[in-house]
Amino acid sequence: MGASADGVVECRCERRHWGHAGAAGVLAWRDASRPEVILQLRAQWSMSGGTWGVPGGAIDYDETPIQGALREAREEAGLGVVRVWATTTLHHPDWSYTTAIAETSPGQKAIATDHESDAMEWVRWQDLHGRKLMPAFEQTLPLLDKLLGRTLLILNSEFLDEGWEEHLVRRATLGFPIETMAPSTAENIRRGAAQARDEDYERTVSWFPDIVLIGEGPMLKAHSARGSVPATIHHVHSAKDLDTSHYQVVTTVGTTVPGGKALDPAHFNRELAKA
Predict the structure, then answer these.
(1) Mean per-residue pLDDT for 189-199?
(2) How confident is the model at residue 2 (pLDDT cuts 50, 70, 90)?
(3) How far apart, in whole angstroms, are the C-alpha atoms of residue 196 and residue 248?
(4) CA dihedral 273, 93, 98, 164 (to 10 degrees)
(5) Which residues are paired to 84 by β-bridges?
(6) Surface-to-core class of residue 129, CB atoms within 10 Å of its CB (0-12 exposed, 13-18 middle, 19+ buried)
(7) Staple 209 to which of 127, 151, 194, 201, CB 3.0 to 4.6 Å?
Protein backbone atom coordinates (compact mmCIF):
# COMPACT_ATOMS: atom_id res chain seq x y z
CA MET A 1 0.00 0.00 0.00
CA GLY A 2 1.15 3.54 -0.70
CA ALA A 3 0.86 6.64 1.43
CA SER A 4 -2.90 7.19 1.38
CA ALA A 5 -4.18 10.62 0.41
CA ASP A 6 -7.86 9.82 0.94
CA GLY A 7 -9.93 12.77 2.08
CA VAL A 8 -11.97 15.73 0.94
CA VAL A 9 -10.28 18.76 -0.61
CA GLU A 10 -11.91 22.15 -0.09
CA CYS A 11 -10.77 23.66 -3.38
CA ARG A 12 -10.49 27.34 -4.20
CA CYS A 13 -12.93 26.63 -7.04
CA GLU A 14 -15.51 26.49 -4.19
CA ARG A 15 -16.18 22.81 -4.85
CA ARG A 16 -15.30 19.76 -2.78
CA HIS A 17 -13.15 17.02 -4.37
CA TRP A 18 -11.88 13.63 -3.24
CA GLY A 19 -8.15 13.02 -2.87
CA HIS A 20 -5.55 15.29 -1.26
CA ALA A 21 -3.02 14.36 -3.97
CA GLY A 22 -5.64 14.43 -6.72
CA ALA A 23 -7.65 11.57 -8.20
CA ALA A 24 -7.56 9.40 -11.30
CA GLY A 25 -9.50 6.73 -13.14
CA VAL A 26 -9.31 4.43 -16.14
CA LEU A 27 -11.52 4.53 -19.22
CA ALA A 28 -10.92 0.92 -20.24
CA TRP A 29 -11.94 0.11 -23.82
CA ARG A 30 -11.92 -2.70 -26.34
CA ASP A 31 -12.51 -2.88 -30.13
CA ALA A 32 -11.79 0.66 -31.34
CA SER A 33 -13.92 0.15 -34.46
CA ARG A 34 -17.05 -0.42 -32.32
CA PRO A 35 -15.80 0.58 -28.88
CA GLU A 36 -17.11 -0.73 -25.61
CA VAL A 37 -15.97 0.63 -22.25
CA ILE A 38 -16.11 -0.57 -18.66
CA LEU A 39 -18.53 1.51 -16.59
CA GLN A 40 -18.91 1.48 -12.83
CA LEU A 41 -22.21 2.09 -11.05
CA ARG A 42 -21.00 4.06 -8.05
CA ALA A 43 -22.21 2.90 -4.64
CA GLN A 44 -25.04 5.00 -3.24
CA TRP A 45 -22.97 6.18 -0.26
CA SER A 46 -20.12 7.51 -2.42
CA MET A 47 -19.73 10.90 -4.13
CA SER A 48 -22.17 10.99 -7.08
CA GLY A 49 -23.59 7.69 -5.85
CA GLY A 50 -26.06 5.97 -8.16
CA THR A 51 -24.40 7.27 -11.34
CA TRP A 52 -22.22 5.53 -13.91
CA GLY A 53 -18.58 6.50 -14.39
CA VAL A 54 -15.14 4.95 -14.70
CA PRO A 55 -13.39 3.06 -11.90
CA GLY A 56 -10.98 5.30 -10.05
CA GLY A 57 -10.29 7.21 -6.87
CA ALA A 58 -7.72 9.13 -4.87
CA ILE A 59 -4.06 8.98 -5.89
CA ASP A 60 -1.67 8.03 -3.10
CA TYR A 61 1.04 10.54 -2.21
CA ASP A 62 3.78 8.32 -3.64
CA GLU A 63 2.03 7.55 -6.94
CA THR A 64 1.87 9.15 -10.36
CA PRO A 65 -1.65 9.72 -11.72
CA ILE A 66 -1.35 6.70 -14.06
CA GLN A 67 -0.12 4.49 -11.23
CA GLY A 68 -3.01 5.60 -9.06
CA ALA A 69 -5.57 5.14 -11.82
CA LEU A 70 -4.42 1.59 -12.59
CA ARG A 71 -4.28 0.62 -8.91
CA GLU A 72 -7.80 1.93 -8.29
CA ALA A 73 -9.11 0.10 -11.37
CA ARG A 74 -7.49 -3.15 -10.18
CA GLU A 75 -9.07 -2.74 -6.74
CA GLU A 76 -12.55 -1.76 -7.96
CA ALA A 77 -12.91 -3.63 -11.25
CA GLY A 78 -10.29 -6.37 -11.23
CA LEU A 79 -8.67 -4.70 -14.22
CA GLY A 80 -5.80 -6.71 -15.65
CA VAL A 81 -2.87 -5.56 -17.78
CA VAL A 82 -3.77 -2.71 -20.15
CA ARG A 83 -2.13 -0.53 -22.76
CA VAL A 84 -2.47 3.17 -21.90
CA TRP A 85 -2.74 5.14 -25.16
CA ALA A 86 -3.61 8.57 -23.78
CA THR A 87 -4.32 10.55 -20.64
CA THR A 88 -6.21 13.75 -19.98
CA THR A 89 -5.96 15.80 -16.80
CA LEU A 90 -8.33 18.46 -15.48
CA HIS A 91 -6.43 21.01 -13.39
CA HIS A 92 -8.31 22.79 -10.59
CA PRO A 93 -6.55 25.28 -8.25
CA ASP A 94 -5.99 22.73 -5.45
CA TRP A 95 -6.80 19.41 -7.12
CA SER A 96 -6.58 17.50 -10.40
CA TYR A 97 -8.26 14.51 -12.01
CA THR A 98 -6.53 12.31 -14.59
CA THR A 99 -8.27 9.85 -16.89
CA ALA A 100 -6.12 7.13 -18.44
CA ILE A 101 -7.60 5.88 -21.72
CA ALA A 102 -6.47 2.26 -21.93
CA GLU A 103 -7.03 -0.79 -24.13
CA THR A 104 -7.77 -3.99 -22.21
CA SER A 105 -6.81 -7.56 -22.98
CA PRO A 106 -9.42 -9.46 -25.04
CA GLY A 107 -10.65 -11.56 -22.10
CA GLN A 108 -11.12 -8.73 -19.61
CA LYS A 109 -14.30 -9.13 -17.58
CA ALA A 110 -16.33 -6.30 -16.05
CA ILE A 111 -16.86 -7.24 -12.42
CA ALA A 112 -17.29 -5.21 -9.24
CA THR A 113 -14.52 -6.28 -6.88
CA ASP A 114 -15.04 -4.00 -3.88
CA HIS A 115 -17.73 -2.17 -1.89
CA GLU A 116 -17.39 1.10 -3.82
CA SER A 117 -19.30 -0.31 -6.81
CA ASP A 118 -22.88 -1.50 -7.06
CA ALA A 119 -22.23 -2.87 -10.56
CA MET A 120 -19.62 -3.01 -13.31
CA GLU A 121 -20.52 -3.53 -16.98
CA TRP A 122 -19.17 -3.41 -20.51
CA VAL A 123 -21.21 -0.74 -22.30
CA ARG A 124 -21.14 0.27 -25.96
CA TRP A 125 -19.76 3.77 -26.33
CA GLN A 126 -22.75 4.81 -28.44
CA ASP A 127 -25.11 3.77 -25.63
CA LEU A 128 -23.56 5.87 -22.87
CA HIS A 129 -26.12 8.66 -23.18
CA GLY A 130 -28.84 6.20 -22.21
CA ARG A 131 -27.34 5.95 -18.73
CA LYS A 132 -27.42 8.25 -15.71
CA LEU A 133 -23.78 9.28 -15.91
CA MET A 134 -21.58 10.84 -13.27
CA PRO A 135 -21.75 14.56 -14.17
CA ALA A 136 -17.97 15.06 -14.35
CA PHE A 137 -17.60 12.01 -16.59
CA GLU A 138 -20.46 13.06 -18.87
CA GLN A 139 -18.93 16.50 -19.26
CA THR A 140 -15.68 14.94 -20.52
CA LEU A 141 -17.24 12.70 -23.20
CA PRO A 142 -16.59 15.03 -26.19
CA LEU A 143 -12.86 14.88 -25.41
CA LEU A 144 -12.70 11.19 -24.47
CA ASP A 145 -14.41 10.36 -27.76
CA LYS A 146 -11.37 11.81 -29.59
CA LEU A 147 -8.93 9.73 -27.54
CA LEU A 148 -10.33 6.22 -27.99
CA GLY A 149 -8.06 4.10 -30.17
CA ARG A 150 -4.47 3.24 -30.97
CA THR A 151 -1.90 5.80 -32.08
CA LEU A 152 1.33 5.51 -34.07
CA LEU A 153 4.26 7.89 -34.51
CA ILE A 154 6.56 7.26 -37.49
CA LEU A 155 9.88 9.10 -37.45
CA ASN A 156 12.60 9.34 -40.06
CA SER A 157 15.65 9.50 -37.79
CA GLU A 158 17.57 11.51 -40.41
CA PHE A 159 15.33 14.48 -39.55
CA LEU A 160 15.86 14.28 -35.78
CA ASP A 161 18.26 16.58 -33.94
CA GLU A 162 21.33 15.31 -32.11
CA GLY A 163 20.51 13.79 -28.73
CA TRP A 164 16.98 12.82 -29.74
CA GLU A 165 17.28 9.30 -28.32
CA GLU A 166 17.11 10.29 -24.65
CA HIS A 167 14.28 12.76 -25.23
CA LEU A 168 12.30 10.20 -27.21
CA VAL A 169 12.48 7.53 -24.51
CA ARG A 170 11.45 10.08 -21.87
CA ARG A 171 8.45 11.18 -23.93
CA ALA A 172 7.48 7.58 -24.71
CA THR A 173 7.52 6.87 -20.98
CA LEU A 174 5.89 10.05 -19.62
CA GLY A 175 3.73 10.97 -22.61
CA PHE A 176 3.91 13.24 -25.65
CA PRO A 177 2.01 16.55 -25.71
CA ILE A 178 -0.56 16.92 -28.45
CA GLU A 179 1.75 19.47 -30.08
CA THR A 180 3.70 16.43 -31.34
CA MET A 181 0.65 15.23 -33.28
CA ALA A 182 -0.16 16.29 -36.83
CA PRO A 183 -1.85 19.74 -36.73
CA SER A 184 -5.27 18.54 -37.87
CA THR A 185 -5.28 15.74 -35.29
CA ALA A 186 -4.21 18.08 -32.49
CA GLU A 187 -6.87 20.60 -33.46
CA ASN A 188 -9.54 17.88 -33.37
CA ILE A 189 -8.53 17.06 -29.79
CA ARG A 190 -8.53 20.75 -28.84
CA ARG A 191 -12.11 21.03 -30.12
CA GLY A 192 -13.07 18.07 -27.95
CA ALA A 193 -11.39 19.70 -24.95
CA ALA A 194 -13.25 22.95 -25.62
CA GLN A 195 -16.56 21.06 -25.67
CA ALA A 196 -15.61 19.38 -22.38
CA ARG A 197 -14.74 22.70 -20.78
CA ASP A 198 -15.06 23.05 -17.01
CA GLU A 199 -15.29 26.81 -16.50
CA ASP A 200 -11.79 28.20 -17.16
CA TYR A 201 -9.87 25.25 -15.77
CA GLU A 202 -7.27 23.75 -18.07
CA ARG A 203 -7.44 20.25 -19.51
CA THR A 204 -4.17 18.79 -20.75
CA VAL A 205 -3.73 15.73 -22.96
CA SER A 206 -0.79 13.35 -23.39
CA TRP A 207 -0.50 10.50 -25.86
CA PHE A 208 1.57 7.33 -25.71
CA PRO A 209 1.94 6.12 -29.30
CA ASP A 210 3.78 3.12 -30.60
CA ILE A 211 6.88 4.44 -32.35
CA VAL A 212 8.51 3.35 -35.59
CA LEU A 213 11.96 4.74 -36.48
CA ILE A 214 13.04 4.66 -40.10
CA GLY A 215 16.76 4.11 -40.41
CA GLU A 216 19.52 2.68 -38.27
CA GLY A 217 19.83 3.50 -34.59
CA PRO A 218 20.15 2.15 -31.06
CA MET A 219 17.64 -0.16 -29.44
CA LEU A 220 15.36 1.98 -27.29
CA LYS A 221 12.82 0.95 -24.67
CA ALA A 222 10.01 2.88 -23.02
CA HIS A 223 8.84 2.15 -19.49
CA SER A 224 5.34 2.09 -18.04
CA ALA A 225 3.44 1.89 -14.77
CA ARG A 226 2.77 -1.48 -13.13
CA GLY A 227 -0.14 -3.11 -14.89
CA SER A 228 0.44 -1.33 -18.19
CA VAL A 229 2.20 -2.49 -21.36
CA PRO A 230 4.77 0.11 -22.52
CA ALA A 231 4.76 1.71 -25.95
CA THR A 232 6.84 -0.18 -28.52
CA ILE A 233 9.83 1.45 -30.23
CA HIS A 234 11.36 -0.32 -33.20
CA HIS A 235 13.35 0.34 -36.37
CA VAL A 236 12.52 -0.38 -40.01
CA HIS A 237 14.53 0.31 -43.15
CA SER A 238 11.62 1.76 -45.12
CA ALA A 239 8.11 3.05 -44.47
CA LYS A 240 6.66 1.44 -47.59
CA ASP A 241 6.03 -1.95 -45.97
CA LEU A 242 4.51 -0.65 -42.73
CA ASP A 243 1.04 -1.90 -41.81
CA THR A 244 -0.78 0.98 -40.12
CA SER A 245 -4.28 -0.49 -40.41
CA HIS A 246 -4.55 -1.24 -36.66
CA TYR A 247 -4.06 2.41 -35.70
CA GLN A 248 -6.72 5.11 -35.60
CA VAL A 249 -4.18 7.98 -35.58
CA VAL A 250 -0.90 7.96 -37.51
CA THR A 251 1.50 10.94 -37.32
CA THR A 252 4.60 11.03 -39.53
CA VAL A 253 7.76 13.11 -39.29
CA GLY A 254 10.09 13.25 -42.31
CA THR A 255 8.25 10.52 -44.21
CA THR A 256 4.83 9.61 -45.62
CA VAL A 257 2.57 6.58 -45.34
CA PRO A 258 -0.98 5.98 -46.60
CA GLY A 259 -3.43 7.39 -44.07
CA GLY A 260 -0.72 9.18 -42.13
CA LYS A 261 -0.71 12.89 -41.35
CA ALA A 262 2.54 14.82 -41.51
CA LEU A 263 4.12 17.01 -38.85
CA ASP A 264 6.91 19.45 -39.66
CA PRO A 265 10.25 17.96 -38.45
CA ALA A 266 11.51 21.30 -37.09
CA HIS A 267 8.34 21.67 -35.00
CA PHE A 268 8.63 18.08 -33.73
CA ASN A 269 12.26 18.58 -32.75
CA ARG A 270 11.41 21.73 -30.79
CA GLU A 271 8.68 19.95 -28.86
CA LEU A 272 10.82 16.86 -28.28
CA ALA A 273 13.63 18.97 -26.82
CA LYS A 274 11.25 20.21 -24.11
CA ALA A 275 11.15 16.73 -22.59
Answers:
(1) 94
(2) low
(3) 21
(4) 0
(5) 102
(6) exposed
(7) 151
